[in-house]
Design goal:
5-stranded parallel beta sheet; Rossmann fold; 25 helices; single chain; 652 residues; 3 domains; alpha/beta
Length: 652
């Protein structure tokens, strides 16, 4: 019976890939036995209640093997994963995308995307379980996280980063199923790697073991052992890629549809004599019974724990509103001259005192980024009740782990590093935006203002690059008050956010604060006259808003009617109607000012408009010297504007 159950997964996968004439069969065929054991005997889930909070999580890190996941979800009874969906594999509009995309009602826990992301996401999920367990108790949250990985996943650097953190924190409810088939696309693993995976994971502090990935007894025993250990576990399952096909144990088994002759040969070898997408009734019913295995546990949890679980999570509260109002009032009185990373820390630490479900962390840069305050308590393997995570110097893992935490929608987390390092974690940022998960990425040291650290650490293209990610709110506040408002926007949003913060101290530039002006993405920070009658609108972000205000004074003295616009979040401004955008951007000469390479500014500037930015990599010198070198000074910008007005015959 066991082999027949596994073969149902195999042949559904074969026909999904065959009908689409696209996909990857190697992993689904090789791992079918191990995944069948998991879903049949160990995984706690309820297809009739896919979002049951205390269900076990299963993550497919090697997302190219998606057909196996879809087959299992269909067989166990997920209503939204119908046979029609399987037959529409990789087709426009189907729920069966080439790589799984986050959809809890279908049983898809997270969008893993590129290799290595999934195991790091799973570390985040396992960490979230421990965090919630510490806050809600053993009876409420005590589930496991399982993740299927291949050689490719474990070769990716993000997997090493995340696995080291999992071992350090002793996340014992994390179990990794390693598809140890010794094959990659280019050939045997030995062509590119000679490491011992088990020894490597032992060095991380993991429990490791090996089993025959085609023996039900060995697989079950390995799972039992893993579940009893207090450390995270990696089970090396020795499998044969493309199991049962003529391509078995060869790189050619990795991807591509089987020919009709190969399908027939596979049917004979595996003793499967049914048509495409056909599962005999006795197997279909057995799989449905397997899918109901945890119904009673789910019902008991709903009776005893659902109210407790549902009453506690991160949410914007009236008390938080009071905190924001108080800090705003304090800022108007003190007019702080400070870096926005400092302002961020002040606001975040106050809000964290109000919510036990708001979490911070950083990549060994807590104080430097504003993510760590003395009032915060680090978590450890012996105590998960804290609110700060030491990620170490592991930017990519931090981003992917935060996504794994945030996907549960109970804990709101932010994590910080320098903006120049954002490229290290870009795949994780992209996945958060694709899934619409409210992760908050904090990037300080945002420009040539980094100064003496030099060109390697002075980001000039990262800001504009992040703005190119759909659905990511990129905030670059101009002063303490804007920082407060941008953080408020990020915490209230269900979309991911990136907060771009300065190293250097900035003047207070705001003179009103009754409402959150940053939530519109942009606003007139100084209005000298009607929009229609304005000769120049200076448009700036972040630290350059104060420069724009200096330029405005010079233009005023030259009788040039000037408005100043602060543009903290392009994505939010782009969602406003045309009338509002016109009001903010003006009808006269538009002048963009930003310490970036200017990519994307043509959205707001026309052919005759001006942009003052950084057209090269930075320089190792003081902040002030760097700004002078690149012409980001009030006098240089003023003179450039006057020349342009004269050229356009707008001065007389």
């Amino acid at each position: 019976m066991f082999k027949s159950l596994s073969n149902a997964v195999r042949f559904l996968s074969i026909h999904m890939v065959g009908k689409a004439d696209s996909g990857h069969l190697g992993m689904p065929l090789g791992m079918a036995d191990s995944l069948t054991c998991l879903f049949k005997n160990f995984l706690i889930y309820n297809p009739e209640n896919p979002q049951w909070p205390n269900r076990d999580r299963f993550v497919l890190s090697g997302g190219h093997g998606s057909s196996a996941l879809y087959a299992l979800l269909y067989l166990t009874g997920y209503k939204n994963m119908s046979l029609n969906q399987l037959q529409s594999f990789r087709k426009l509009g189907s729920k069966t995308a080439g790589h799984p995309e986050y959809d809890l009602d279908c049983g898809i826990e997270i969008t893993t995307g590129m290799l290595g992301q999934g195991i790091a996401n799973a570390v985040g999920m396992a960490l979230e379980e421990r965090l919630l367990n510490a806050r809600l108790g053993d009876d409420c949250i005590n589930h496991y996280t399982y993740v299927s990985v291949g050689d490719g996943d474990l070769m990716e650097g993000v997997a090493a980063e995340a696995s080291a953190i999992a071992g350090h924190l002793s996340l014992g409810r994390l179990i990794v199923l390693f598809d140890d088939n010794n094959i990659t696309i280019d050939g045997e693993v030995g062509v590119s790697s000679s490491e011992n995976i088990l020894q490597r994971y032992e060095s991380y502090g993991w429990h490791t073991l090996a089993a025959n990935g085609h023996s039900e007894n060995e697989i079950n025993a390995a799972f039992e052992s893993a579940r009893q250990d207090q450390r995270p576990s990696l089970i090396a399952l020795k499998t044969r890629i493309g199991y049962g096909t003529p391509r078995e144990n060869s790189p050619e088994a990795h991807h591509g549809a089987l020919t009709e002759q190969e399908i027939e040969a596979t049917r004979e070898k595996l003793d499967w004599h049914y048509g495409p997408f056909e599962v005999p009734e006795y197997l279909a019913q057995t799989w449905k019974i397997i899918g109901k295995r945890s119904h009673k546990a789910c019902e008991e949890w709903q009776k005893t724990q659902s109210e407790k679980y549902g009453s506690k999570c991160f949410g914007w509260s009236e008390e938080m509103t009071k905190i924001i109002k108080k800090i705003k009032k304090d800022y108007f009185i003190s007019r702080p001259f400070e870096a926005t990373r400092v302002s961020f820390k002040e606001v975040l630490s106050q809000l964290m005192k109000e919510s036990n479900f708001l979490l911070s962390g950083s990549c060994d840069l807590g104080s430097a980024t504003g993510c760590l305050d003395q009032s915060m308590t680090p978590i450890s393997k012996n105590d998960f009740s804290g609110n700060y995570i030491h990620y170490g110097v592991r930017e990519h893992a931090m981003g992917a782990i935060m996504n794994g935490i945030a996907i549960g929608k109970k804990i709101r987390c932010c994590g910080g590093t320098f903006l120049a390092f954002s490229d290290y974690m870009r795949p994780a940022i992209r996945m958060s935006a694709l899934m619409n998960v409210p992760t908050i990425f904090v990037f300080s040291h945002d420009s040539i203002g980094v100064g003496e650290d030099g060109a390697t650490h002075q980001p000039v293209e990262q800001l504009t690059s992040l703005r190119g990610i759909p659905n990511l709110n990129v905030f670059r506040p101009a002063d303490a008050l804007e920082t407060l408002e941008c953080l408020e926007c990020a915490l209230k949003s269900e979309a991911p956010s990136a907060l771009i913060l300065s190293r250097q101290d900035l003047l207070s530039v705001r003179f009103s604060g009754g409402v959150n002006l940053c939530e519109n993405g942009g606003y007139l920070i100084y209005e000298n006259g009607s929009v229609a009658g304005t000769m120049v609108t200076l448009i700036a972000t972040g630290s350059e808003v104060s420069i724009a205000l200096e330029v405005k004074k010079m233009l005023d003295d030259s009788r040039v009617t000037t408005n100043v616009t602060s543009l903290p979040c392009w994505n939010l401004l782009n969602k406003q109607d045309a009338a509002y955008r016109f009001h903010v951007l003006g009808s006269g000469l538009r002048v963009g000012i930003e310490a970036s390479n200017g990519f994307g500014w043509d959205r707001y500037l026309g052919r005759d408009d001006l942009f003052f930015g950084v057209n090269d990599f930075g320089k190792s010198c003081s902040c002030a010297d760097a700004y002078r070198y690149f012409g980001l000074t009030a006098i240089n910008i003023y003179e450039g504007i006057m020349r342009k007005l004269d050229e356009l015959d707008m001065c007389g």
